[in-house]
Amino acid sequence: MRLTNLDMDALRSFVWGIDAGSFARAADRLGRSTSAVSAQLKKLEEQAGMPLVRKSGRGLALTDGGEQLLSYARRLLALNDEAVSALRGAELEGWARLGIQEDFGETVLPRVLGRFARAHPKVRVEGRIARNAELMEKIASGQLDLALAWDDGGALADERIAAAPLCWLGSAAEAPAWRRESGEPLPLVVLEAPCLLRTIACEHLDRQGIPWRVAFVTPSLGGLWAATAAGLGVAVRTSLGRPASVGLLDERHYGLPSLPSLGLRLIRSDKGANPIADHLAAIIRDAFWETLPAEWMTREAA
After folding, report:
1. Under the phi-then-psi rule, with left for phi > 0, alpha for psi from -120 to 50, and beta for the rest, what region is 131?
2. What does the alpha-carbon distance between residue 144 and residue 192 come to, in Å, rounded to a whole number?
3. pLDDT for 195-244, tens place per residue?
4. Engineering a disulfide at 229: which of 96, 245, 248, 285 sits with its beta carbon 3.0 to 4.6 angstroms away?
């Protein structure tokens, strides 16, 4: 029996198309035409010997075979990219200092560090999970080579990865008793100042003339989740890393102001060229494409 070699480019288009929700978006990220990506999908279906996607309303859905192949495709691509990264950076030695927001400590950081360690075993990574102000300070002082931080509009902003929608959050066990028409101040669960998201929340409430009070303040994201889950107040955050005990609030139901999306950026030290940081940044980009909703991702991250 003659073995079939699946086309790696076609596999990548297939995975990115499914992750992006459409092959038109995948084509945009790949820098190819939609027809070219469609041709790759057809080629992959011929190699697989079965249809991989089917029409579902206005979009596409995976067939049983497509769902099975998607799992293998992710593993094949990850191994391929890891091998290429290792070969191209085979001589890399030294260490890299990475700073990352608390929101991504459990969801993204283990994946990033694992892949980097396998690709570059001679490089030591020093990781630091911290809040935005501290990350910016350590990048500016040269104590970090690379940081993944919220975009505060400062001069250090470098490469935008995504734009994450902010949302109002409350206890998943019990709906907040507060209503705008009550005239009572909205109880807020916040991080200690300075906090970019705390500032955004207060500014939007002030613009709408909604009174508020700080009901609970904490230095850590874990404390914020715990207080919100306990029903001590509402919080503003993205849905990233949100525990099951914390639920999304319908802003229209409660009369709360709409919130913007918050940019997420890779910020580099200005200490000159750093190939180790470049390889680490590439792995971070890939991890976010696999983790975040496709509509959050930006063209810069492609």
Report:
1. beta
2. 23
3. 889 999 999 999 999 999 999 999 989 999 999 999 999 999 998 888 99
4. 245
Structure pTM?
A: 0.67
CA–CA distances in Å: residue 81 to residues 19, 287, 294: 17, 12, 20
Strand ranges (E), the chain: 53-56, 59-62, 94-100, 123-129, 146-150, 159-165, 167-171, 186-191, 212-218, 235-237, 246-248, 261-268
CA–centroid distance for 243 within its chain? 16
Contact 235, 190 (CB under 8 A): yes
**Could you tell me the two tokens for 259?**
């919130």
**55, HSE (Cβ side, Cα atoms, 13 Å):** 2
Residues 149 and 136: beta-carbon distance below 8 Å: yes
Q: Please state the φ and ψ torsions of residue 125, each to the nearest 5 degrees.
A: -105, 125
Q: Where are the alpha helices (DSSP H) in 49-140?
A: 64-88, 109-119, 132-140
Query: H or E segment at 276?
Result: helix 275-291
- pLDDT tens digits, one per residue of 129-147: 888 888 888 888 888 988 8
